[in-house]
């Protein structure tokens, strides 16, 4: 785990480091976070570390317990599906509101992102693909002037990052299919066709949920 640069605000940097560790699966559900161990590992005192824990708890990433170390929160299949439902509603609505605001510069950035997605798939770097997948979706949200929608989708995508880690264990077609769906979304955006863009986003998110459920169903049987 990284140490915090002295020039940075301690609790902010500790929060980002621990959050990344949770989202990438370095810290797993149920792992304890004893103050002495992690404050020393991060190179900060206990006071900013406690502030960090409070922020992580407020985002639902950890569970704080009286008289015992905080632990990384579990993220169940049911929770994942609830977040996916929220994501589907908000992202389809978001693309309706933002298609006409996406300029040539953002189109270029999205195409670069898709090319990096392709390279990640070709090199079997599925954790990297999932990071780029999240970046693609949040780029579409970034032009929305509604701050609350941006914040909600940021949180939902963060929470789902842990769920989507399981997709790195599935067949490569999962990532390849998602990449093709992203291309279709971007084509609709380039045409500035709001109805088509909404439909392509809806199809993509529905397929993500199906792939997610297929993984669970195969492992439950």
From TrEMBL:
Keyword terms of this UniProt record: DNA-binding, Transcription, Transcription regulation
InterPro entries recorded: GntR_C, TF_FadR/GntR_C, Tscrpt_reg_HTH_GntR, WH-like_DNA-bd_sf, WH_DNA-bd_sf
Top-level taxon in the UniProt lineage: Bacteria
Gene3D superfamilies: GntR ligand-binding domain-like, Winged helix-like DNA-binding domain superfamily/Winged helix DNA-binding domain
HTH gntR-type domain boundaries: 8-75
Protein name: GntR family transcriptional regulator
Originating organism: Salinicoccus siamensis
